[in-house]
Amino acid sequence: MTLLHVDSSILGPYSVSRQLSAEIVARLRRNAPDLEIKYRDLAAEPVPPLSGAYLAAQQPGAPAPGAEVQQDLALGGELLDEFLRADIVVIGAPMYNFTISSQLKAWIDRLLIAGKTFRYSEKGVEGLAGGKRVIVASSRGGIYSEGAPAAIFEHHENYLRSVFGFIGISDIEIVRAEGIAVGPEQKAAAVKTAQDEISKLANAA
Ligand SMILES: Cc1cc2nc3c(=O)[nH]c(=O)nc-3n(C[C@H](O)[C@H](O)[C@H](O)COP(=O)(O)O)c2cc1C
């Protein structure tokens, strides 16, 4: 069984989502020591944003691209294969400016590929990447849960639910620490709540 662990916080050792994603992986590994783990740090090794040249090179009959675009195409293929091969994907997802980090968005941009992870059919859009378990370590400064005054600004977990739902993964699991910026007590309580959730996660199977 293969687990892909992805981090996307730019806060390095101060990151809460990194701490939680590592704890999720450690928790799953405990009962499945043979778990094959692949780690990607999208802040240390950022995925370049999609470029016009990258998309143009994939058009039918396009001329052979230059070395830089070829390298980018190879990276795109590697990221997609890595994702498709994984049985479990653990994602550290901080909230920046009400949504996911641009580092995480750049990675997701390489996964939504027509014919690979979704297709358009007479029945509408069909996700092709189902059968995978996706666990998100969500961390945010404020409070956006249902009923909170700021809930309308929630484009973070909702976005992730939409995007993974679109490719056929409809029930992502979210471990959340929110209110991190409210104060040290709230931060400690939020991390503790998330850790309790981690301890209750189903074993890797
Ligand atoms: C650039 C930046 C933008 C942020 N934007 C928001 C925001 O829009 N809403 C919020 O509640 N917290 C915001 N925060 C606080 C983070 O969500 C909080 O620090 C969270 O722990 C980030 O996850 P991380 O610690 O894994 O990086 C922001 C933090 C940074 C560094």
* Ligands (ions, cofactors included): flavin mononucleotide
- Measured between the Cα atoms of the first and last residue, the distance is 8 Å
Which value, in Å, is the CA radius of gyration? 18 Å
- Secondary-structure element order, N to C: EHEHHEHEEEHEH
Helix content: 25-40%
The number of E-state strands comes to 7
Amount of beta strand: 15-25%
Task: Quickly list its features.
two-stranded antiparallel sheet; single chain; 20% strand; binds flavin mononucleotide; 205 residues; 5-stranded parallel beta sheet; alpha/beta; 7 strands; 36% helix
Could you please describe the fold and organization of this structure?
- This protein has 205 residues and is of the alpha/beta class.
- The chain has 6 helices and 7 strands, in the order βαβααβαβββαβα.
- The protein has helices spanning 16-31, 52-56, 67-85, 102-108, 157-166, 184-199; strands spanning 2-7, 36-41, 88-94, 118-121, 124-127, 133-140, 173-178.
- The strands form 2 sheets. A 5-stranded parallel sheet has the order 2-1-3-6-7, with helices on both faces. A two-stranded antiparallel sheet has the order 4-5.
- A hairpin with a 2-residue loop joins strand 4 (118-121) and strand 5 (124-127).
- Helix 1 packs parallel to helix 6 (184-199).
- The protein is globular and about 60 Å long.
- 31% of the residues are buried.
- Bound molecules: flavin mononucleotide.
- Flavin mononucleotide binds next to helix 1 and strand 6.
Q: Could you provide a short overview of the structure?
A:
By secondary structure, the protein is α/β, with parallel strands linked by helices. It is built from six helices and seven strands; from the N terminus they run E-H-E-H-H-E-H-E-E-E-H-E-H.
